[in-house]
Amino acid sequence: MTGTPYKLDHEDPFGGKGKTPWISFRGENIADSEFILHFLMKKFGAILKMNYYNEEQLAVATAVRTMMDERTVWGMIMERFVLGSAENMLQVFNMPAIMRIIAKRVILGRAKSQGIGGHAPEDIVSIISKDLVTVSKILGHKRYILGDEPCIEDAGIFGQLSQYYWGLPNNPYEKLLNGECKNLREYCFRMREQFWPDWK
Predict the structure, then answer these.
(1) Minimal CA–CA distance to 22: which of 5, 39, 42?
(2) Is pTM, for the whole model, over 0.90?
(3) Any idea where the domains of the chain sit in the sequence?
């Protein structure tokens, strides 16, 4: 988004914390979107500074991104590893059956600790659907989460939403995302076309 040069690492999609995304900068590994953003702001502040919005507006964008990072993400994780079919998962990850079983147990344990794993599947869908409707209402008719220009939080928001569109086949949110929340779909395509024109 900022023109900062980078190189993709396809060998290790999960860093030392077992999380993605993660980056390595001159031998230093940083995991988790929020820590990565703070690190990049510190190192490349002049490049990443986007002065289109005031502090109050940016706080709204941060709140949206935080909600998505801490709760909305669990809709995707639960659907991919616990509630969805093996066939759907195999469209995203070529994972042996034993690894799928282990991943399901680990994810369910983490989801129960987080809280969402204690709910019935239909309640999880209801919770996550409300999150998606909330983001849709905040986005409204704007090009980006705050207006005509992107802010740094658009990266994380897009990162979460893109999973629902391109990384979660046959998910229970498709009708909502292509209907009432179709502005989120338009937002995702706009972000993809503008910043990742070579997306495959």
Answers:
(1) 39
(2) no
(3) 1-49, 55-195
